[in-house]
Amino acid sequence: MSILIFVLLAGSVALAVWWLFGQAERAWARYEDRMRDETRRTLDASFLFLDMAQLRPAVAGLGLALMLAVAWLAGRWWGVLPVLAGLLCAPPLILRHVRRRRARRFDAQLPDLVLALAGALRAGAGVQPALRHLVAQSSPPLSQEFGLMLREQRLGLGFQDALLQLRARMPTESCGLVVSALGIAARTGGSLADTLESIAQTLRARQHWLGRVEALTAQGRMQSRIMAGLPAVLALVLSRLEPEAMALLWQTWYGWIVLAAILLLEGLGIFWIRRVAAIEV
C-alpha cells in the first residue's frame, strides 16, 4: 500500500514538474517573440537596420558576464537570480527609453522647422517644395521622419495619408499639432503661415516650461535612481566583506522577512518619488 502511495505521489510530482516546464517554455517563447518584434519595430523606427542574428549573441554574452560578476561578488550562485530577473525586465524598459529619447529629439527640432516653413510660405513657396528644401538641411530624427513622408508621397501616397503615417510614427502632442495644421490647410486653405508661426511659438513655450520642470525635478529623479541601486550594491559589497554577518540575512527565515520588507519599502519609495517628480505640462 505504501509503495502504491509513493508511486502515485512520484507520478503526481513528475506530472506537475512536466506541466510547469511546458508552461515555462511556452511563456519564454511568447516573451522571445514579443521582444523580437518590439526590438525590430523600435530599430526600424529609429532607422537602425541591424541584423538580429548578430545582435542576440552580443546581448547574451553581456548578460552572462554580468551574472558571473554578480555571482562572484555575492559569493553564491543564487546571486544571479535577481540579475536574471532584471535582465528579463530590462529590454522593454530600454526600448521604451530609446523611443522616448527619439521623440524628445524630434520635438526639440520641430519648432525650428515649423518657423522656417512659415517663412518659406510667406516668401511664396509651396508646402511640399518648402518641406523638401528644409528637410534636406535638417538633422535626424526630423530629417528621417519627414524625408520618409516625402518619399511616401513620391511613391503615390496622398499628402493626408502621409501626414497620418508621420503622426503614427511620432505620437507626440507637438507632432499632432503640426500634422493637424498641415492637414487642415491642405483641405481648406487659409493663412497657413500665420498658423504655423503661432504653433511654433506654442511649441517653444512648451519646451521652455518642460525644461524648467525637468530642472526642478532632477534631484527627485536622481534620488529615485540612487534609492533603486544603492541597497543592492551595498548588499553585494557587504557580502564580500562580512560574509558571516550577511549570512544571517540570506540563510535565515527572519532574514528573508527583512529582505522582503526592504524590497517592498524600496519599491513604494521609488514609486512615490517618481509620481511626485512626474509633472505633466
Keywords:
mainly alpha; elongated; about 280 residues
Largest sheet, in brief, is: none
Taking pLDDT < 50 over at least 5 consecutive residues as the criterion, the unreliable ranges are none
Number of beta strands: 0
Please give the oligomerization state of what you see: single chain
Strand percentage lies at under 5%
Task: Tell me roughly what share of residues is in helical segments.
Answer: over 70%
Our count of helices gives: 11
What structural class do the secondary elements suggest?
A: mainly alpha
Order of helices and strands: HHHHHHHHHHH
Intertermini distance? 73 Å
The overall pLDDT average reads 78
| Shape designation | elongated
Gyration radius (Cα, Å) is: 27 Å
Subcellular location: Cell membrane
Main location: membrane
Protein name: Tight adherence protein B
Membrane topology: Multi-pass membrane protein
Structure summarized in a few sentences:
The protein is mainly alpha-helical and 281 residues long. The chain has helices at 2-45, 52-74, 80-122, 127-136, 142-154, 159-169, 173-188, 192-216, 218-241, 243-251, 253-277.
Secondary-structure topology with pairs:
Elements: H1 2-45, H2 52-74, H3 80-122, H4 127-136, H5 142-154, H6 159-169, H7 173-188, H8 192-216, H9 218-241, H10 243-251, H11 253-277
Care to describe what's here?
It holds the Pfam family T2SSF. The chain has helices spanning 2-45, 52-74, 80-122, 127-136, 142-154, 159-169, 173-188, 192-216, 218-241, 243-251, 253-277. Helix 3 (80-122) crosses helix 4, helix 3 (80-122) runs antiparallel to helix 8 (192-216) and helix 4 (127-136) crosses helix 5. Among the domains are: 103-210; 218-277. 11% of the residues are buried. The termini are far apart. The radius of gyration is 27 Å and the shape is elongated. 86% of the residues lie in helices and 0% in strands. The chain is mostly helical and 281 residues long. The longest helix is centred in the first third of the chain and has 44 residues, at 2-45.
